[in-house]
Amino acid sequence: MNKKSVLKAAAFCLMVGVLFISCKKNASSTTGWAYNDPNNGGFEVTEVNEMEVGPGLVAIDGGTFVMGGTLDNVNYSWDNVPRRVTVPSFFIDITEVSNVDYREYLYWLTRVYGQNYPSVVRNALPDTLVWRHRLGYNEPMVEVYFRHAAYNHYPVVGVTWVQANDYCTWRSDRVNELMLVKAGILDWDPNQQDEENFNTDAYLAGQYTGNVKKGKKDLSQGEGDATRNVRMEDGILLPSYRLPTEAEWEYAAIGLIGNTQHEMTTDRKVYPWNGDGLRTDNKRYMGAFMANFKRGSGDYMGVAESPNDGSALPAPVGSYWPNDYGLYNMAGNVSEWVSDVYRPLSFDDVADFSPYRGNIFTQKVMDGEFLAEKDSLGHIRRELVPQEEAAKRQNYRTAFNSNYGDGDYMSAIRYNWTAGEADNQANYTKDMYDYATNDQAGTTLINDESRVYKGGSWADGPYYLSPGTRRFLDQNHATSTIGFRCAMNKIGDSSK
Asked: N or C: which end of the chain has fewer CB within 10 A?
């Protein structure tokens, strides 16, 4: 074959390849039926290469790292022994959630639920009394820290783990509603009230329509003007905002991307910055502290006009230097809630890929063969996966897995359960850890509502600035030193 014939053959092969790829995109490669054709039933396929990044988020490339303590444990609890795990790619907030962010949430709740369900607003309010001290004068902070405009961009505190999760759910809905408005599917609806408000699950289930603008053309109805609600398959809606897992938070905080080449880590990290010191080597700011923390007994900000952290209490979000992922305040300022249930020996039984303790598997409530009506707040009703259904599974055997292998019926140290006690999951863990209640003495505060929080705060010493340290608090309690930031799953190719 001469050169000219080779070129013609190559051109022909290229053309066939292009046509094949084009056909594959517009028609099924297994049946040959065309996609997005109202004349053949209208099966729709949307090509989306990348999900849109939600507001406030930074992409974190997943990878393998050694999770666990980087400093000697001063409490000798050894509750974070180093072990190698892999974290898939995800997104996380560049800063902690601020007062003005949380006040926007309260404003929306008041506008939508305040008239008929004022308890919803009350339950979301941060506890401003966390600033009080029996032998300290912090009373002005009770009144002004959360409300005054001067503190708009300071991290919100006094928020429980439960409240932080509710905020994440609300934020997911507001962002997805805006996505639909931007796409021209819906129009603005500032008059939402009670159950008639945009909720992502209710919208996807067809139980909320909203102010339709153009809508999404429904190809299953032929060539007419019929529209439908957007589906997840359309690639418009984002996954939910949520609290990061402990592994995600620690991986993002340590920020190994900045000192790793060809899978080799060049510099040791104890904190979210290189080395084991607490001051910057930036020539312009030489000697200044990298974070906001308690330097020693009675020293929250250093002597005036000398290099110090400069903040006696929380500093504005985005203060100090970001880590190599561009994240601010992953050490100091306020500690942060993560989603995990606390166990002192989590490394023994959690997965080494995307480790997490706290799964409680639910399903949507059905009314016969159909989905039950949403509740009075506009949310789709959910319930625990029934035990008879969970028992048929191979990958899990019960809906409640927060205490799996560490506090559940099989691992609890007690064996003489009465019938009523044996039916209550919470009893297993509380008995195993000798949980102390308000009216009964005990040795620990560990139960299935004990949640991990990470990172040192403005009131903590240097030890707690290390991402590997971990502490826990009841999910219904709040303090002046704990805030939070949100995360989101990355959909699609995790290598991009």
From this structure: N
> What six digits make up the tokens of 190?
């500032």
The per-residue DSSP string of 312-359 comes to SSPPPTT-S---TTS---SSSSSEEEEEEEP-TTGGGTS-SBS-----
Identify the residue with better confidence: 433 or 14. 433
- The residues near 486 (Cβ < 8 Å, ≥ 6 apart) are 56, 57, 92, 93, 97, 167, 168, 171, 241, 242, 243, 244
Q: Which of 153-157, 184-188, 285-289, 480-484 has the lowest mean pLDDT?
A: 285-289
Nearest to 387 by CA among 379, 398, 378: 398
H-run or E-run covering 376: none
pLDDT tens readout for residues 237-271: 999 999 999 999 999 999 888 777 777 676 678 89
> Which run of H or E residues covers position 24?
helix 3-26
DSSP 490: P
Per-residue burial over 168-199, b = 16 or more CB atoms within 10 Å of its CB, e = otherwise: bebbbbbbbbebbbeeebbeeeeebeebbbbb
Q: How far apart are CA 196 and CA 202, in angstroms?
A: 10
Burial of 127 (0-12, 13-18, 19+ CB in 10 A): middle
Token pair in block for residue 84:
């190698």
User: What element of type H or E holds 241?
Assistant: strand 241-242
State pTM to two decimals.
0.90
Q: Identify the H or E element spanning 11.
A: helix 3-26
Is there a contact between 442 and 416 (Cβ–Cβ < 8 Å)? no
Residues 484 and 168: their CA atoms lie apart, in Å, by: 10
What is the rounded distance in angstroms from the CA atom of residue 4 to the CA atom of residue 337? 68
